[in-house]
Batch of 3 targets.
Target 1
Amino acid sequence: MFIRSIASPEWLEQYYSRGVFPGFRVLLDTFVTSWFPIPLVYLFIPFLLFSVGKGLFKWSRSQSRGKGLRAIAGLLNFTGWTIGLFLLMWGFNYGRQPVEERIGIQPKGLALSSLQTIIRQEAGVLANLRAKIPQSDTLALHSEHFPKNMEEQLRQALEEVLDYYNYPTVGNVRGRIIEPKGILLRISTAGIYFPWTGEGHIDAGLIHLQRPYTMTHELAHGYGFGDEGSCSFWAYLAAFKVTDPALEYAIRLGYWRSLAVHWVRADSVSYHRFRAQLPKGIIADLTAINENIAAYPDIFPNARNAAYDTYLKAQGIAEGLQNYGRVINLVEAWRVTEGEDIFE
């Protein structure tokens, strides 16, 4: 934690994110995640609970002050190892150089009118993309429209984008689907990356329309990016490298929804007037996503938001939960500086 507090972004970028971290990535993917048949988190969480419970049990049964202090020391020791491994295996990536500095773009805030223009333009792109999906109609897309090897295609597309911008892509980050349905959605989270296992996870409750954008976001965490906006940015760019039209459409629809939420908050009446004019297929997709989200209501949303906001700020993400919205400024700055034709 002391190293994290004094290390500069440039130092962390060069020596950790491009040096130490890829070594952990190779070790985990080569000897553990590549062959293990189930998400390692299924073993990690029980081990964590057992270790903590064992320490608390020893402390409660201790008959002397010495034994009680040893039990407390054991818990502190375990906590120290947990935090230390978190930082060493992945957490230092929070302090690396910002993506915009490395690739030469300048994110700026956008006025609502500009967002509305982008939303309208993106809606036209979505309509064209959806028309290319085999057997698509005016009903919401479902599992049969998406490839069985979605994880592999998304990982390959993401790696091609990161390679283009000279980021290391060693290893083979896994994107796992975890059960039971709603285990993450009920805490306002669709996916999560576990540094101690090196795997990204998405909730099994997500319908297939939601999975590509979320899974690619979690895979980006696995390749060494901590802040949420950067991971969503890389997920969006991966859409230009995927070859399956349903995957490209779903990723760009995920980004479109992150744009649309700002319009809804600012002027819901004009947004819903615009939404009603969208192609029937897109409306059906948006409705299916909203209905699925509503099926998993939050449990203690305020507590979750406060905890995660505090966590992000503790990792150096000053804006906390608002970091998720940074993807819009990154994408639009990239669009101005680089342009979508760059990957053609």
Note: Strands lie at 174-178, 191-194, 199-203.
Target 2
Amino acid sequence: MVDAAGLAVRCYAGPWRALAACLFALSRISLPWILWRVLTADDPPITPPLLAEMLLVVWALPGAAAWLIGRAYAARAQADAAALVVERGAQRAVIERDRIAELLVWRIPLPEPGFAVRLDDGRRAPFAIAARDPSPLLSALDPGAARLPLMVWTAARWPAPGWRYFLGRYVLFALFPAAVLFNAHQHIAYGAFLGQYYLMGPGAWLTTAAIYWATLCAYLLLYASACRAMVEAVTLVAARIVPARARAVRRVAERIDQFAFYAGVPVLLALRFAA
């Protein structure tokens, strides 16, 4: 059974789940597409302003809209052998276990993994439940559904990281490659690290530095999206082939992802200067 506080879920109703799923999918698919455009476009190339516009339009805005829809349908759910209880604000829905004919796990886990409830009269419950990991609810109501490959993959995922993780990974770590490239640019274009500062003033120098920093933050995001796609693909294959080892495969894949990110960036930077 889920603990007394319940599991944080999204309790989608009507077409809102489909809308959130489309927005979330657009947001996530856009990152590999933008990375491909950055690597292949050369006439004209993807400039920093164009990169910022692409990220805003096809990544940030759809992702934020999907998140807001999810927040609007935030709820808490509990389940045991007797009933499924969902509470959203002042609303409370209780579905007795003997009224549940089937749990319909979504084949496509967007915007999150989730499931619908088919009742004993053939109708579906007026809401569907989604969560980062809904397997505790499924285990309490239908252990067989919790053993589906998609749910095994879901249960193997690590908890969602907090804002400090993203700050360190994409903002602070970007200072290193940004400083290296900015220093090279200043020496090539102005003859010294402070060349633009003395020639054009501190405003121009700081603006250029900020552009390099923001651009490297975006590049790290795109690079990480490619690494993340491989981690999720490997874990999903493991969940289908060797479900008992899915968590172990996830741990190894996550460690490789960390190494590829933090060690790969200096390597790519060195190759950039060696080219």
Note: Residues 1-157 form a domain with the PH-domain like fold (CATH 2.30.29.30).
Target 3
Amino acid sequence: MESKVLITGATGVTGENAIARLLELKIPVRALVHKLDERSAQLTALGVEVVEGDLTDFNSVSAALKGISAAYFVYTIQAPGIIEATAYFIQAALEEKVSHVVNMSQITARRESPSHGAQNHWLAERLLDHSGLSVTHLRPTLFAEWLAYFAREIKGNNRLLSPFGNASYASIAGEDTGRVIATILANPDDYAGKTFELSGAEEMTQQQVADLLTEILGRKITYIPMEIDAYGQMLAQFSDPYFVQHIAGIAQDFRDGLSGGINDNVEKITGQKPLTMEAYIKKNIDLFR
């Protein structure tokens, strides 16, 4: 039987980019999506097998992993449930004899994290490590796509809001992360048992990002540094309390310098340098102007 890989979060920024690269490599893909919609229809049109399910439902996870040789596991940071979902995924993967799992974690994942979300990612890593499955953990910095989440504010009010103060970090684009995921799924034996921190091309402060937006867009974009509590109150209007607490925790971590540093893991794994923030903005210019 031909090997097939499973991509969870298939319509998200890492999943969709991993799928694109896997299709280029002629590797059959099954995509697990939360609901069937226009985005999943686009995957079907590309020749991807699409299944509807939820990582918090053991039966649908088990069904999605049937006949799968390797899988990408990612759970949203915006809601609780990663520990239970990880346990479901582990048991289903063991039952279906999945040979390798690529796990999406994050740069701030550690036992002592003030963020419950980041701490839970660390715990999920440990569950996978103790499971007996062959696993690769990915710990990216914040995605460049975070900028897109605030596109309406940038477009409408010419402001970039952030709780990260003067912290400097190297944002990584989902495009680059997706290529890393696909490369590992295509050659899992080369990466088994390893953890990779993934950074973008350059460290930048949010002030520098605002200056870059100003230069590219040809209009003044003002950086508005917000206190962590005030930013959390703003987020609470439209986000789960779990996510608000997570952002408060990592904002403090970033202010304390835990976000800094650059590595060449993206280039080592994929053979291609990661996008710069300038390149990311220009590729997605319509979001901001």
Note: The chain has a mean pLDDT of 96.
